[in-house]
């Protein structure tokens, strides 16, 4: 459970750090761990919503919509989450939710399936990768999302 501000009722403004980036990271971290997230937004006394609050949820919703395939109907795993982010999977697809890219690429161990292709889910951009007995190495795409990039691996 998390609230847009510091209270579970209406308060003007947004708590420090609870901007769109916060919500995108929180959603990604939650689903990669098979969790459920309750997001609270408190209405004003007249029932209307603060336009600043609405904007944050609309922007977060744009990210969710663009990456829906890697969110809805998936399970957390098959690799352990870490500082880099986490993963979800369904059928023959694994979705890497990358919060922190590393210069040398993202090293993923524990993925037993052979990866056939990799692409940025939201844009379709091809992602360079290599796989050997030590694991999977995924290179940062040319145009990663500024908060969480979801990379679809076909296995």
Helix content: 10-25%
Spell out the helices and strands N to C: EHEHEEEEEEEE
Largest sheet descriptor: 5 strands, antiparallel
Low-confidence stretches: none
Report mean pLDDT, rounded to a whole number.
93
Spatial arrangement of strands, main beta sheet: 3-4-5-10-7
Global morphology: elongated
Give the DSSP E fraction (strand runs of 2 or more residues): 25-35%
Total count of helical runs of at least 4 residues: 2
Give the beta-strand count. 10
What is the radius of gyration?
17 Å
Structural class: alpha+beta
Q: What does this protein structure show overall?
A:
The structure is a single chain. By secondary structure, this protein is α+β, with helices and mostly antiparallel strands. It has two helices and ten strands, in the order E-H-E-H-E-E-E-E-E-E-E-E. A five-stranded antiparallel sheet has the order 3-4-5-10-7, covered by helices on one side. Strands 6-9-8 form a three-stranded antiparallel sheet, with no helix packed on it. The chain has a two-stranded parallel sheet with strand order 1-2. The protein is elongated, with a radius of gyration of 17 Å.
């Amino acid at each position: 459970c998390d609230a847009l501000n510091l209270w579970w009722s209406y308060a003007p403004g947004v708590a420090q750090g609870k901007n769109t980036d916060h919500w995108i990271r929180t959603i990604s971290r939650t689903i990669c761990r098979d969790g459920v997230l309750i997001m609270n937004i408190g209405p004003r006394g007249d029932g209307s919503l603060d336009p600043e609050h609405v904007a944050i949820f609309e922007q977060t919703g744009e990210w969710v919509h663009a990456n829906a395939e890697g969110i809805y109907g998936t399970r957390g795993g098959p690799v352990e989450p870490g500082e880099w982010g986490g993963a979800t999977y369904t059928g023959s697809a694994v979705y890497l939710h990358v919060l922190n890219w590393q210069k040398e690429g993202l090293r993923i161990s524990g993925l037993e399936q052979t990866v056939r292709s990799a692409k940025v889910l939201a844009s379709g951009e091809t992602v360079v990768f290599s796989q050997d007995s030590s694991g999977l190495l995924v290179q940062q795409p040319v145009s990663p999302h500024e908060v969480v990039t979801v990379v679809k691996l076909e296995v």
